[in-house]
# Entry
Amino acid sequence: MSKREPLPFHALIPAAGNGSRMGLSTPKQYCKIGGKMILRHTIEKFLPLQGLISLRVIINPDHRDLYNEAVAGLNLPEPVTGAGTRKQSVNAGLDCFDADDKNYVLIHDAARPFVSHQALHDLLNTLQTSDAATLAAPIADTLIDTKYNRLNRDHIRAVQTPQAFRISLLKKAHAAFEKNEDFTDDAGIVTAFGTTVELVTSGSENFKITTAEDLIMAERILASTMETRTGMGFDVHAFAPEDSTHIRLGGIDIPHAKKMLGHSDADVVLHALTDAILGAINEGDIGKLFPPSDIQWKGADSEIFLKEAANRVAAKGGKITFADITIICEAPKIGPHREAMQTRIAAILGLPESRISIKATTTESLGFTGRREGIACQAVANITLPSQD
Ligand code: MG
# Structure
């Protein structure tokens, strides 16, 4: 097939439901799997798609705080206020578009976070030749009615989302069935309106998280796709000519007669560890995030830098699993302060102390650390996070 231009399209994600079948206090689309809200996982499936013009979520205004948490940092347009039924909610979303809008809209359930890239690609491809299409999965089980009459599963599909339509068509179909609340999906409305909806084959992985068991299954699927990353960090700070009473190292103050030079609090340990964590998520380094040229970081507590790196890991649904730190200097002696540093760093990262290792070495009087000109620190951080591919 010849390569075509990506088709421009909008996306609407109805997320106004209360998820009452789940028996949880939090609506299911805002429940977390792999440390991240389901709605966020779903949105992130769409954002990288070529041709996406806009993505709007349709929400219950009572969930506004949860919604804000789910989309933090994504810069999405204002959400649409949904209504009682799914059909009414989608209708509210369609009010964002003109009646004669010839673009396409993909409507996708908030609780289907595992839609595959291939299925989305196939659906968008179908729109090159069709005004209406939906993902649908073949059924593997033998199907019977309650009298054990076998149904021919070759002619049966489980309808999924996204469902995709030319906007002008979908608006007309919704208007035609404005008073009819029997429909549970938009492909049904468009079919009743007399337009053929193309069925695009999808898989069972694109299931809708509906029950508490589904939530457990979703968590397992995500766990099976977690990957491990390792990041390295290295930092050096020099001793200042002036005398002092203490230096900041590993988040604590240690008595020492020499001062350390640095724009912030000059904590080499937290700097090396921050860089190791940022490295593992490929988000640059401490100098890029907190430029020394920026006056606001003058004398800053390096805990701020470390916390920001940890927050960035969490925002990706990731988890820091272990950090190993080596402090390199002749003086001060690290041993007496090792446990306090471990406790402090574990507290900053919200981890058990068993996940933070701190070691120290000298360079046998060789080099700048050997000449007591400064302190160096190496750090390695391991994180797990959902596969980014
Ligand atoms: Mg530094």
Summary: The longest strand covers residues 226-243. The radius of gyration is 27 Å. The pocket of magnesium ion is lined by residues 235, 237, 262, 268, 271 (CB under 6 Å).
